[in-house]
Amino acid sequence: MDSGALQEVTQTLDVYVYKSLMLNANFSYSSASAFLQSAVGCVLLIISNIIVKKIDHDSALV
């Protein structure tokens, strides 16, 4: 509920994107943050797929 003491600790990237878009109408920062989050997620997915492929080739994607 926007508690001042907990806001710095509990704010995630998703919450930052939402607040910068909805509350501040800051489209450039929110779109850049969302793109960064998508890029990092894609890289982590590719890395984890490579690790799974080395452990068990049948369980990996493609």
Give an account of the 3D structure.
The model has no long low-confidence stretch (mean pLDDT 84). Helix 2 runs antiparallel to helix 3. It contains 3 helices and no strands. It is 74% helix and 0% strand. It is mainly α and 62 residues long. It has one domain (4-59). The radius of gyration is 17 Å and the shape is elongated.
Instruction: Specify the structural class.
Output: mainly alpha
What best-fitting shape do the alpha-carbon axes yield?
elongated
Total helix count?
3
Termini Cα gap: 43 Å
Give the amount of beta strand, in percent. under 5%
- Overall pLDDT metric: 84
Strand tally: 0
Radius of gyration, taken over Cα atoms and rounded to an integer in Å:
17 Å
Helix fraction bin: over 70%
Please describe the biggest sheet, giving its number of strands, its sense, and whether it closes into a barrel. Answer: none
Please give the domain count.
1
Order of helices and strands: HHH
Low-confidence sequence ranges: none
Short description:
The protein has 62 residues and is an all-alpha fold. Helix content is 74%, strand content 0%.
Features:
single chain; 62 residues
Topology, element by element:
Elements lengths: L3 H7 L2 H10 L4 H29 L7
